[in-house]
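[Q] Does anyone have a clean structure-token version of this?
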Amino acid sequence: MQRFRSMLFAPGNKSELLKKLPKIQPDAAIVDLEDAVPNEEKENARKIFQEFTGSEQTKDLAVFPRVNPISSTHFELDIQALPAEVDCVVIPKISSLEELKEAEKILSQNNVERKIIVGIETVLGVVSATDILSNTLVIAAYFGAEDYVLDLGGFRTTDNDEVFLARSQMGMASRLSGVPVIDQIVTDFSDNERFTNEAYQARALGFSGKLCIHPSQVPLANQSFSYSQEEVNRAKELLAVYDLAVSQGSASAVYDGKMIDEALAKQARRILEA
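[A] Here you go.
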């Protein structure tokens, strides 16, 4: 499973910004052909993307295009323009398994076989997330909070109460499907504290990474979704205490003033395995 702690978006029609991506080194660079590109620039964005992915500088960088939604007239044109070097495509606003199958059909009709990262950005998409993520072509999914709340008819708040249930459902869909999910953007890219807090919340809910809209957010995401040395050390200590208790015939023990059992031991093992 590929690791996506950080997914950095860059507008596909801005070649000067794309050239900076290899130095930033996100886990995945998403070249946006959708929201970040006005209609009159769509064709130009496709050409710039083709040139960028064909360059030597992308050799050690995971670069994926976010195409336009399947309901858009631009979707098939985006698919037809995919370079051979690109092995995965990001498809936004997938709301059902039927929509995903329709996208697969269009890819097949154009003799394009690619892995897929899906954008879950509607109420129906969240409700259908487990089915969508069960598709064998899907290797990851992201949660788009802004479009989700628009579809919901609500409004965005800094405390994220309006998306707590949706984020929880995404985490559960990830667990049931075995497909990693990536958390929402933070639009205020100057607010590092909010980004880090959201990343911590997302990790607690089962997310594997976070969407980034600015280079400064990439190291924050990478750090937030990596186990710290302190976490590793505590996991080792906890397991040592627990394993000793088990060897002495007990199914629980006390570590750092707290009761620990097999469930907590499994969490510690997961940290060490990662």
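[Q] Thanks! Anything notable?
[A] The chain has two domains: 6-224, 229-273.
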